[in-house]
Each structure stands twice: as C-alpha cells, then as structure tokens.
Amino acid sequence: MRMRAILDATTILFASALGLVVEIVAGRLLAPYVGMSVHTWTAVIAVVLGGFSIGHWWGGRLAGPECDRARGHARLSWILAGCAAASLVAVPALRLAAPFLDAEGVSPLLAMLGFALAGFLAPSLLVGAVSPIVTKLAVEEAAPGQVGRVLGRLFAISALGAIGGTLAAGFVFLAWIGSSGTMLACAGCYAALAALHAAAGARRAAALGLAAAAVAVPAGALALPAYGRFCDVESAYACLRVVDAEPMIGRPARLLVLDHLAHGMNLRDEPTTLVQPYLHLADELMVARGLPEAPAAFFAGGGAFTLPRAWAAEHPRAALTVAEIDPAIAALARRDFWLRDGPALRVVARDARVALQATPPGPRFDLVFADAFQDLAMPVHLVTREWHRAVRDRLNPGGAYLVNVMEDRRAPRFLLALARTLAEDFAVVEIWVEATAQPAGRRITYLVLASGTPSPAPRITARRGPERHWARLPPDYVASRWRAADVPVLTDDFAPVDRLMSHLILSPEASGR
Asked: Could you give the 3-state DSSP secondary structure of residue 18?
C-alpha cells in the first residue's frame, strides 16, 4: 500500500512539473515564428489550459467504476507514453505548420493560436488525463476517514510539482539545454513514468521498451534534421540568429535576428557605415546638434552594438556605456559582429533602467539612446515618466534622449502617447522620419528626440554613407495628433503599451508577416 502511495505521489509530482515545463517552453518555441508578446503568451496559456481541461474531462471518463489498480496502471502507462510522443513531436510539428501559419497575409493572432495548438495542445491534453486516474485510485484505496487527507496531499504535491516545473524551466533547462533539448528531456521523463506504471501493472515487456525509449528516443532525436538548432544561440531571453548579409549588400556583413525581428547589421570592414536608416539618422542628428569629439553616451539595449561600435571606432576618447541585460547578446556581438572591447566602450550586463539609475544624477551624458524591444513593443518600464526623469537628470546641457519606435504609419497611438509623456519633462520633443521613399506597408520606424534644446534644422541630409534625407514632423502637428487621439501619459502605474500597440502587432501587414 505504501509503495502505491509513493508511486501515485511521484506520478502527480512529475506530471504536474512536466506540464508546466512544456507551457513555459512553448512561449520560447513560438518566439521565432510570432515573437514573444503578451498576445503570444495569451495564446499559449489559453491552449495549454484548454488542453488540461479536456484532459481532465477525458481522464475522469477513463477513471470509471471499472478502472481498478491494474487497469489504472495500464491506462496511465499508455497516456504517459502518449505524453512522451507528443512532447517529442512538438518541435517538428511547429516546423511543419510554419509554411501555412507563417505565410503572408495570415492574421498574427491566428498564427499564434495555430502554432500553440499545433505544438502544445496534445501534450497538455494527455498530461491532463493523468491526475483524475491517479486521484481515483488513491481515494478508493484510502483508509476510512482519510479521503480528505489523501486528496489534500495529492493536490499539494500537484501544486509543488507545478512550482518546481516552472522554476526548473525558467532557471535551469532553457539556460542549459535550450527549448528543443527541454522538450526532449520532457519526452524522456514521460517515458520513464510510463515505464514505472507498466512495471507496476506487471507488463514487463512494455516496461522495458518504455525504459529504453526514455533514454534512446530523446538522444536519437537530436540527430534528426527536425531537431537541428533553430537558434545559433539560445539565451535566457531570446533566440539569437546570425544571418550572412553579404549577398544583400555586396560586402562582408552580418544581420542579427532576435526571435523573429532583425536587430542590427554590421559591416566587417566599415564600422562607421550604418546600414539601418534609424541608426544612420541618430548619428547624423547628434552630429548636427554638436556632438563633441569625445562623446559620453548611454545605450539602453545592445543588439548588434552597431552605433556604439561605430562611435568607438570614430571617437577613441569617447565614454560609451551599453546596458544589455542579456550577456549572450554581448558575447555574440564580440564573436560574430566584430565588436572590439576598448577604453571607449563599456558593456554593463544589467537592465538599462537599473543601470542608469545606479549612476548618480547630474550632467553626465550627451546622449541616452533607447533601442530595446520586446517583439515590436518597447519594454514598459522604459517608456514611463519615471524613466524619463531619470534620463533627464543625467543629460548634459544640450544633451538628447533618442528613442527608436516601430509604429503604424497611419495611427501610431503608442508613438503619440510616448511623445505626450516626454513632453511632461522635456521642453523639446521631436519626431523624425525618413523623407526618402520608404517600403510599402503600415509599419515604419520613427526616431523620437527629447531635449532641452531644439535641433538646428527641420531636415537633415546624410553627410556620409547611403544617400538619405530625414524630416522632423511639425511640433504643432504632433501635439494636435496626441490630443485628438486622447492617448494617456505613461507612468509606472499605468502604461498600456500592448493595448496601444495591438493594432500593429495583430495586423498581418504591419507586423511584417
């Protein structure tokens, strides 16, 4: 009897843990296809909880009056074997679904739900069927008057398993073996549990086969093309890919892709040539405003370190600080994007807001540049008045705060809210756009400037590099737009960035699908 209770507890513990591991990993596996936003997580959580619900209902049907201990072990062994198989095929299922769901014109919301269903409904449904069967067997075998204690113990163990699985996925598995490796590990653990129940049901051949599968199948799957690494580096924060850009521009160059968005392109032999227009504009704009020969700048977000690399090469006496929360991005920039450490450049592996606020207030920087994104949206804590005040208090006289914003061409609600918020603490707020022809589509890139002094001219022409022209939107026009749009001032207490950006993220055209 005691061994049965131990097996029941072990099954509940690991089934709950593995179910939550799969849920956490699901968000990471979907990120290269649809990004990692609140909408992605909503789709994942809805699908996983839906799978659990259907599985609980089905498991209750399987735990009928005829389900004695022997039948229970048999049913659990096959359900857990199904969990192993479903976890094993989750990654290939996403890749098989990609040509249909990642196609041009497919609604991003439909794609998010479709990917979540393709990869994670089956493993969630199957593991949801485990607990009703285990609970039924344990309750029927409970001593008189002990049913409540048995139920409480199993529920507590289930909750502990869910907590342990969440912590293990976030802090251990993803960081050490990656998302695909974690799914394979889950498949192996499910197969091992299935083997235990097959053995408990006196099915020795099945137990031996499942035990062998627990080791051999995950290890063998690593050799399959479907389990080839999608990411060049998978960090605790993102899927990082390095793309050879030489065929695109005819010179040795590389493009950094984080999850599903390009985040910087560097030329090997020309560090001061800025391919991306918004970085080119940031450089030209600061020069037009009187950038000193030895500039002091703080960069919130590293990406490919394109502009810091350019300024470090051009201004060897500069004092450039880059706050990049993901150490893997900085390491990749050094390895594949020709970033060289030197006295002009300091990399801080901390959140940008924490890093900036750790510096004493006072004149310090000629430029603070925010170029950090979660999917298409900026991190919420880098758009609020509280952050803007911290920036303002550390700018030199005439210094500027620049923000890169990807927004809608027609109704940029987040951009207008950001401009209104900046106007609360800066005397000058400017919005710059490329004046030359831009690609068709709703999404364009804006560069927002906040300062105590205006830029010297409403138009800028590139001094070097690609021939480009930029224009400043009329300040009165911008102010009238944010009043008409009735957008909020963004604060730490209220910054609905995802709502303000939803028109962009959920548009097939604007999201770049």
From this structure: helix
Are 504 and 409 in contact by the 8 Å Cβ rule? The answer is no
Total-model pTM: 0.86
C-alpha dist (Å) from residue 162 to 24, 25, 135, 193, 455:
11, 14, 17, 16, 54
The per-residue pLDDT for 233 is 85
Query: Can you tell me the distance from the alpha carbon of 240 to that of 327, in angstroms, rounded to the nearest whole number?
Result: 12
Collapse the DSSP code of 364 into the 3-class scheme (helix H, G, I; strand E, B; otherwise coil) and give the result: coil
Instruction: Tell me which residue of 281, 274, 263, 309 sits closest to 446, measured CA to CA.
Output: 281
Residue 21: CATH number of its domain: 1.20.1250.20
Structural domain count, the chain: 2
Q: Are residues 251 and 225 in the same domain?
A: no
Amino acid code (one letter) for 367: L
For 187-238, write each residue's pLDDT tens digit: 999 999 999 999 888 787 777 877 777 777 777 666 666 565 678 888 888 8
Range of the domain at 30: 2-230
Backbone angles phi, psi at 430, to 5 degrees: -120, 145
DSSP string, 139-200: HHTSPTT-HHHHHHHHHHHHHHHHHHHHHHIIIIIHHHHHHHHHHHHHHHHHHHHHHHHHHH
61 vs 212 pLDDT, higher one? 61
Distance separating alpha carbons of residues 336 and 241, to the nearest angstrom: 10
Q: How far is CA 415 from CA 100, 397, 467, in A?
A: 32, 25, 26
Domain end among 177, 200, 230: 230
Q: Give the count of beta carbons closer than 10 Å to the beta carbon of residue 141.
A: 14
Per the rule left: phi > 0, alpha: psi between -120 and 50, beta: everything else, 250 is left
CATH of the domain at 278: 3.40.50.150
